Amino acid sequence: MKPTTRRIIVLGVIILSGIGSRLIATGFALFDNYLGDALYAAMLFMLLLVFAPRLTLAKAALIGFGLVVLIELFQQTGIPLAMRSHENSLIQLMALLLGTTFNYWDLVSYAIGIVLFFGYEAYWARVEAGQ
Predict the structure, then answer these.
(1) Could you give the CA distance from residue 95 to residue 82 in angstroms, rounded to a whole number?
(2) Contacts of 80 (CB under 8 A, 6+ apart)
(3) Where are the domains of the chain?
(4) pTM of the model
(5) Is residue 74 within 8 Å of 81, Cβ to Cβ?
(6) Which of 23, 49, 104, 109 could share a disulfide with 34, CB 3.0–4.6 Å?
């Protein structure tokens, strides 16, 4: 299987899992509060690998983490929170995708998600190289 095909399949699984993590409440804080954040960062990492396949894994990881940190810091402006109560449903959706409240633990979740999928991709790079 080509790396891009595998990555697109994994990306689909990440997205469905992320949606599921937000729709299903388990009462387990790590699952309910932070799994979706880890998957969100993993999704950005995998999107970078799909749409910019020449990026090294390390560059994709750094860019992906940088993007989620910027999004998290943007939440401190209060703009995403204000967007949530906007009359336009597209703007409300944007607020949902961006998140509305800053949380330092989200940064940890993002890092974990990227590190896990970085490891996954590094494994497949070795397999595909025949090592």
Answers:
(1) 8
(2) 74, 94, 95, 98, 99, 100
(3) 3-128
(4) 0.89
(5) no
(6) 109
Under the banding of pLDDT at 50, 70 and 90, the label for residue 9 is: very high
Long-range pairs for 14-21: beta carbons < 8 A, 24 or more residues apart = 14/39, 14/42, 14/43, 14/46, 14/117, 15/39, 15/43, 18/43
- pLDDT tens digit sequence for 17-49: 998 988 888 888 888 889 999 999 999 999 999
Overall residue count recorded for the chain in this entry: 131
> Above pLDDT 90, what percent of the chain?
69
Contacts of 116 (CB under 8 A, 6+ apart): 38, 42
From the DSSP assignment, how many helices (H) and strands (E) are in the chain?
A: 7, 0
Chain centroid offset of residue 96 CA: 14
Angle formed at CA 39 by CA 35 and CA 45, multiple of 5 degrees: 150
Torsional sign, CA 105, 107, 110, 116: negative
